[in-house]
Every structure is written in structure tokens, then in C-alpha cells.
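Ops channel
N.P.: pipeline sanity check, posting one input/output pair.
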């Protein structure tokens, strides 16, 4: 669906919709969502940084999106800002089956993104990375910096445990500011769990409890690696944290 001031959301013509400059997506399950306001702020901020529509138009768009989201079933909607026309769009998609674990291609894909800190421009490129991972018997792939340091996965943030310390890559690296990983860090701080930003290669994650974290699946512990001889560590923390994340979903606003 496309959005215009005064007309709101209307069915869009069929087609690929064109290149994106901004996108955002989240899980809606029976009218409940996690951190909806944070997804809104990330999308509106990214649109403003790209010289997108006027703030009042962005607010109106989001209000209409909120009203249009289904209140039953499992959905994975995506909001978009088109590159050429700066057109605002809503793509309503049924959510795929949710996974509780993930196999990861550990070969180390050099980060191919042109705009790593903004979701949207590199979605097609990252889909290609995931297709290559699928060919290696995995659902996801690790993106690395030229130095070999782990950045994130194609569609998720990467966290891992070193003893009782929750670790993630340093924020100075080219990382997408993940909404869900922010929620995880905040809970760790509330519980007094030590958080550390550490540079690690893929090989240095061998035998550790590693999580992929995103808005769709929540927390998925890595259950297997492909592409190099590595072992997935025992899942000590994952189940309890997944239950917590599921429990903080809240009803969508009225509009």
C-alpha cells in the first residue's frame, strides 16, 4: 500500500516497488508488538536524515499504518521510503514460522553493505548473502569487517556469552542500531549482568553460547555452525531470555 496526504493508504500497483532508502519491520502477533514506539522513532529518524517527507506527513503515515495493522494472526509488516519518489509505503506480510534456534554459515562474509547503519538500502544485497548461506546448509551468515572482526548477521545482531559476561561488538563498528538488542542490553543492566563490547573473530566464538537477535524471531541461540569446524556452545541463558522477550509484547496503540 502507498500513502499520500489526504488519501492515506491505498492499494499499490503490482511490481517490485523500487529501491529503498529506509525500511523497518517488526513482529505483530494477535495485535501485540514489542517496542513499537522504538521502531517508529528509528524509521522517522532515518527518513528525516534522508531528506524524506515532512515530519507531519511522517506522523500521519505512521498513524494510518497503526490503524491498518491486523489485530489477529501473526504478521511481519514493513514500512518503506522509496528512493526515487520518496514515497511512503506499507507492506503487509504474514510472519514466517518463528524459530527457536539457528544454524549459521561461519565462513565469514565480508560486509557488503553500502549503508550499514540504516535499514533499507542493502536489503536485496543481504538477501543474497542469506541465499548463499542456505546453499551451505545454514539459515544465516556472519558479516565481518576487513580485519576479520565479527559485526552482525545478515538480518540480526550478534551477541555471545563469555562466562557470565554478555558480549557484543563495539558500537564504533558499522552496525545497524537494533531495537531488540537494545532491549536485551537494558535488561542485562537492570539485572546487574556485566556487558562488554569486544572484538572477536568468528573462530573465537567457537564453543560459546551465541545469540542472533532481531525483531522477528527475538533471541535465537546458535545451534550449529557450517563452513568451518566449530561447535555451538550449550544454551545456558537462552530459554529464560526468550521467555522474557515474548512476555514484553504489548497491544498495538489504537492509531
Amino acid at each position: 500500500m502507498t500513502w499520500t496526504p489526504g488519501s492515506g493508504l491505498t492499494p499499490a500497483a503490482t511490481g517490485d516497488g523500487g529501491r529503498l532508502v529506509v525500511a523497518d519491520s517488526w513482529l505483530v502477533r494477535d495485535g501485540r508488538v514489542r517496542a513499537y514506539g522504538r521502531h517508529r522513532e528509528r524509521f522517522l529518524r532515518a527518513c528525516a536524515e534522508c531528506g524524506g517527507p515532512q515530519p507531519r506527513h511522517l506522523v500521519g503515515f505512521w498513524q494510518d499504518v497503526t490503524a491498518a495493522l491486523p489485530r489477529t494472526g501473526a504478521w511481519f509488516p514493513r514500512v518503506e521510503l522509496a528512493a526515487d519518489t520518496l514515497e511512503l509505503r506499507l507492506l503487509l506480510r504474514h510472519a514466517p514460522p518463528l524459530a527457536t534456534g539457528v544454524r549459521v554459515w561461519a565462513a565469514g562474509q565480508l560486509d557488503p553493505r553500502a549503508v550499514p547503519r540504516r535499514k533499507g538500502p542493502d536489503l536485496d544485497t543481504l538477501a543474497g548473502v542469506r541465499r548463499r548461506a542456505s546453499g551451505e546448509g545454514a539459515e544465516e551468515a556472519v558479516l565481518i569487517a576487513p580485519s576479520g572482526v565479527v559485526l552482525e548477521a545478515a538480518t540480526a545482531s550478534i551477541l555471545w556469552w563469555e562466562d557470565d559476561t554478555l558480549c557484543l561488538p563495539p558500537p564504533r563498528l558499522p552496525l545497524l542500531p537494533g531495537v531488540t538488542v537494545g532491549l536485551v542490553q537494558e535488561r542485562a543492566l537492570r539485572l546487574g549482568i556485566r556487558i562488554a563490547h569486544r572484538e572477536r573473530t568468528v573462530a573465537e566464538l567457537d564453543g560459546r553460547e551465541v545469540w542472533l537477535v532481531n525483531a522477528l524471531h527475538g533471541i535465537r541461540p546458535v545451534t550449529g555452525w557450517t563452513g568451518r569446524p566449530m561447535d555451538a556452545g550449550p544454551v545456558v541463558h537462552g530459554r529464560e531470555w526468550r521467555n522474557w522477550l515474548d512476555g514484553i509484547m504489548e497491544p498495538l496503540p489504537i492509531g
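N.P.: looks fine end to end. The first strand starts at residue 2 and ends at 4.
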